[in-house]
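Subject: Cytidylate kinase

B.,
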Amino acid sequence: MSFCVAIDGPAAAGKGTISRAVAAHFGFAHLDTGLLYRATGAKTFEGLSAIDAARSLQASDLDRDDLRSGDAGQAASRVAAIPEVREALVDFQRAFARRLGGAVLDGRDIGTVICPDAEVKLYVTASDEIRAGRRYRELQTAGEDITQTQVLADLRERDARDSARATAPLKPADDAHLIDTSDMSIEAAVAQAIALIAGKI
Ligand code: C5P
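Prediction pasted inline below.
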Protein backbone atom coordinates (compact mmCIF):
# COMPACT_ATOMS: atom_id res chain seq x y z
CA MET A 1 0.00 0.00 0.00
CA SER A 2 1.27 3.48 -0.77
CA PHE A 3 0.31 6.49 1.34
CA CYS A 4 1.73 9.93 0.60
CA VAL A 5 1.99 12.79 3.08
CA ALA A 6 2.82 16.07 1.31
CA ILE A 7 4.30 18.80 3.53
CA ASP A 8 4.91 22.21 1.96
CA GLY A 9 5.69 25.67 3.22
CA PRO A 10 8.25 28.49 3.24
CA ALA A 11 11.83 28.19 4.52
CA ALA A 12 12.39 27.38 8.21
CA ALA A 13 8.69 27.00 9.08
CA GLY A 14 9.29 23.63 10.75
CA LYS A 15 8.54 21.32 7.79
CA GLY A 16 11.72 19.31 8.20
CA THR A 17 11.25 18.62 11.90
CA ILE A 18 7.57 17.76 11.45
CA SER A 19 8.34 15.53 8.44
CA ARG A 20 11.02 13.55 10.26
CA ALA A 21 8.83 13.09 13.34
CA VAL A 22 5.80 12.03 11.28
CA ALA A 23 7.89 9.58 9.21
CA ALA A 24 9.36 8.04 12.37
CA HIS A 25 5.93 7.80 14.02
CA PHE A 26 4.23 6.00 11.11
CA GLY A 27 7.31 4.13 9.84
CA PHE A 28 7.17 6.01 6.50
CA ALA A 29 10.17 6.89 4.33
CA HIS A 30 11.08 10.59 4.24
CA LEU A 31 12.40 12.72 1.37
CA ASP A 32 13.56 16.30 1.96
CA THR A 33 13.08 17.54 -1.61
CA GLY A 34 14.88 20.83 -0.85
CA LEU A 35 18.08 18.79 -0.75
CA LEU A 36 17.64 17.91 -4.45
CA TYR A 37 17.60 21.62 -5.34
CA ARG A 38 20.39 22.45 -2.89
CA ALA A 39 22.57 19.70 -4.37
CA THR A 40 21.76 20.90 -7.91
CA GLY A 41 22.66 24.47 -6.92
CA ALA A 42 25.90 23.33 -5.25
CA LYS A 43 26.96 21.50 -8.42
CA THR A 44 26.70 24.77 -10.37
CA PHE A 45 29.42 26.20 -8.07
CA GLU A 46 31.76 23.81 -9.92
CA GLY A 47 30.85 25.25 -13.32
CA LEU A 48 28.13 22.82 -14.40
CA SER A 49 24.98 24.32 -15.94
CA ALA A 50 21.92 24.01 -13.67
CA ILE A 51 20.12 21.75 -16.14
CA ASP A 52 23.11 19.38 -16.51
CA ALA A 53 23.54 19.41 -12.73
CA ALA A 54 19.91 18.34 -12.18
CA ARG A 55 20.01 15.70 -14.92
CA SER A 56 23.20 14.13 -13.55
CA LEU A 57 22.23 14.25 -9.86
CA GLN A 58 23.39 11.16 -7.92
CA ALA A 59 22.56 9.96 -4.41
CA SER A 60 26.14 10.78 -3.37
CA ASP A 61 25.56 14.47 -4.30
CA LEU A 62 23.05 14.66 -1.44
CA ASP A 63 25.75 13.85 1.16
CA ARG A 64 27.80 17.03 0.67
CA ASP A 65 28.51 18.88 3.92
CA ASP A 66 27.87 22.36 2.47
CA LEU A 67 24.23 21.85 1.44
CA ARG A 68 22.75 23.48 4.57
CA SER A 69 24.59 26.78 4.11
CA GLY A 70 22.83 30.04 3.27
CA ASP A 71 24.64 30.16 -0.10
CA ALA A 72 23.40 26.69 -1.03
CA GLY A 73 19.84 27.78 -0.10
CA GLN A 74 20.03 30.82 -2.37
CA ALA A 75 21.57 28.79 -5.21
CA ALA A 76 18.82 26.18 -4.74
CA SER A 77 16.10 28.77 -5.08
CA ARG A 78 17.68 30.19 -8.26
CA VAL A 79 18.01 26.81 -10.02
CA ALA A 80 14.54 25.80 -8.75
CA ALA A 81 12.96 28.52 -10.93
CA ILE A 82 14.22 26.80 -14.13
CA PRO A 83 11.46 24.54 -15.55
CA GLU A 84 13.93 21.99 -17.04
CA VAL A 85 15.60 21.59 -13.64
CA ARG A 86 12.26 20.83 -11.97
CA GLU A 87 11.30 18.48 -14.81
CA ALA A 88 14.54 16.49 -14.35
CA LEU A 89 13.67 15.88 -10.68
CA VAL A 90 9.98 14.99 -11.01
CA ASP A 91 10.13 11.24 -11.75
CA PHE A 92 12.39 10.47 -8.80
CA GLN A 93 10.09 12.37 -6.41
CA ARG A 94 6.89 10.79 -7.77
CA ALA A 95 8.34 7.28 -7.51
CA PHE A 96 9.42 8.03 -3.95
CA ALA A 97 5.92 9.31 -3.11
CA ARG A 98 4.33 6.07 -4.26
CA ARG A 99 6.76 3.59 -2.76
CA LEU A 100 5.16 0.82 -0.73
CA GLY A 101 4.92 1.40 2.98
CA GLY A 102 4.19 5.12 2.92
CA ALA A 103 6.21 8.27 2.27
CA VAL A 104 6.53 11.80 3.60
CA LEU A 105 7.87 14.41 1.16
CA ASP A 106 8.55 17.97 2.20
CA GLY A 107 9.16 20.91 -0.12
CA ARG A 108 7.32 23.70 -1.91
CA ASP A 109 5.24 21.95 -4.60
CA ILE A 110 4.57 18.47 -3.23
CA GLY A 111 0.82 18.90 -2.71
CA THR A 112 0.34 21.00 -5.86
CA VAL A 113 2.58 19.35 -8.50
CA ILE A 114 4.52 16.27 -7.35
CA CYS A 115 1.75 14.46 -5.51
CA PRO A 116 -1.57 16.28 -6.12
CA ASP A 117 -3.41 13.10 -5.05
CA ALA A 118 -1.54 12.82 -1.74
CA GLU A 119 -3.64 11.25 1.01
CA VAL A 120 -2.72 14.09 3.40
CA LYS A 121 -1.45 17.58 2.56
CA LEU A 122 -0.07 19.95 5.16
CA TYR A 123 1.05 23.54 4.63
CA VAL A 124 3.35 24.55 7.46
CA THR A 125 4.03 28.23 7.97
CA ALA A 126 5.13 30.80 10.60
CA SER A 127 5.80 34.54 10.70
CA ASP A 128 8.94 35.80 8.92
CA GLU A 129 10.57 36.89 12.19
CA ILE A 130 10.00 33.57 13.93
CA ARG A 131 11.34 31.65 10.96
CA ALA A 132 14.39 33.90 10.68
CA GLY A 133 15.11 33.44 14.41
CA ARG A 134 15.00 29.65 14.05
CA ARG A 135 17.18 29.60 10.93
CA TYR A 136 19.64 32.03 12.56
CA ARG A 137 20.14 29.71 15.52
CA GLU A 138 20.64 26.73 13.18
CA LEU A 139 23.24 28.57 11.07
CA GLN A 140 25.01 29.83 14.20
CA THR A 141 25.25 26.29 15.53
CA ALA A 142 26.69 25.27 12.15
CA GLY A 143 29.36 27.96 12.58
CA GLU A 144 28.17 30.44 9.92
CA ASP A 145 29.17 34.07 10.41
CA ILE A 146 25.85 35.83 9.75
CA THR A 147 23.49 38.25 11.53
CA GLN A 148 19.78 37.69 12.21
CA THR A 149 18.97 40.70 9.99
CA GLN A 150 20.84 39.06 7.10
CA VAL A 151 19.03 35.78 7.70
CA LEU A 152 15.64 37.57 7.63
CA ALA A 153 16.51 39.37 4.37
CA ASP A 154 17.76 36.09 2.87
CA LEU A 155 14.55 34.22 3.82
CA ARG A 156 12.33 36.97 2.45
CA GLU A 157 14.27 37.06 -0.83
CA ARG A 158 14.07 33.28 -1.20
CA ASP A 159 10.35 33.11 -0.33
CA ALA A 160 9.57 35.95 -2.76
CA ARG A 161 11.45 34.15 -5.56
CA ASP A 162 9.83 30.79 -4.70
CA SER A 163 6.32 32.31 -4.60
CA ALA A 164 6.66 34.44 -7.75
CA ARG A 165 8.13 31.89 -10.14
CA ALA A 166 5.93 30.70 -13.01
CA THR A 167 6.61 26.97 -12.61
CA ALA A 168 5.44 25.23 -9.43
CA PRO A 169 5.39 28.32 -7.18
CA LEU A 170 5.24 28.05 -3.41
CA LYS A 171 1.55 28.09 -2.42
CA PRO A 172 -0.80 25.92 -0.38
CA ALA A 173 -2.80 23.31 -2.27
CA ASP A 174 -6.54 24.05 -2.10
CA ASP A 175 -7.06 20.96 0.05
CA ALA A 176 -4.04 21.44 2.36
CA HIS A 177 -4.42 21.71 6.14
CA LEU A 178 -2.68 24.84 7.41
CA ILE A 179 -0.40 24.56 10.45
CA ASP A 180 0.94 27.91 11.71
CA THR A 181 3.86 27.16 14.03
CA SER A 182 4.50 30.81 15.05
CA ASP A 183 3.10 30.39 18.55
CA MET A 184 3.27 26.63 18.81
CA SER A 185 5.87 24.33 20.30
CA ILE A 186 7.35 21.80 17.92
CA GLU A 187 5.77 19.03 20.02
CA ALA A 188 2.32 20.57 19.55
CA ALA A 189 2.85 20.98 15.79
CA VAL A 190 4.00 17.36 15.47
CA ALA A 191 1.02 16.14 17.54
CA GLN A 192 -1.37 18.09 15.29
CA ALA A 193 0.21 16.63 12.14
CA ILE A 194 0.11 13.08 13.54
CA ALA A 195 -3.57 13.44 14.54
CA LEU A 196 -4.49 14.68 11.05
CA ILE A 197 -2.68 11.80 9.35
CA ALA A 198 -3.97 9.15 11.77
CA GLY A 199 -7.49 10.26 10.88
CA LYS A 200 -6.87 9.44 7.19
CA ILE A 201 -5.16 6.04 7.51
O1 C5P B 1 13.55 23.47 1.83
P1 C5P B 1 14.85 24.12 1.50
O2 C5P B 1 15.06 25.43 2.18
O3 C5P B 1 16.01 23.19 1.68
O4 C5P B 1 14.75 24.41 -0.07
C1 C5P B 1 15.75 25.14 -0.76
C2 C5P B 1 15.15 25.76 -2.01
O5 C5P B 1 14.81 24.71 -2.93
C3 C5P B 1 13.85 26.52 -1.80
O6 C5P B 1 14.08 27.88 -1.47
C4 C5P B 1 13.15 26.37 -3.14
O7 C5P B 1 13.56 27.35 -4.06
C5 C5P B 1 13.63 25.04 -3.65
N1 C5P B 1 12.64 23.98 -3.53
C6 C5P B 1 11.65 23.91 -4.50
N2 C5P B 1 10.75 22.90 -4.47
C7 C5P B 1 10.79 21.96 -3.52
C8 C5P B 1 11.77 22.03 -2.49
C9 C5P B 1 12.67 23.08 -2.52
O8 C5P B 1 11.59 24.75 -5.37
N3 C5P B 1 9.92 20.96 -3.55
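The chain has one domain: 4-198.

T.
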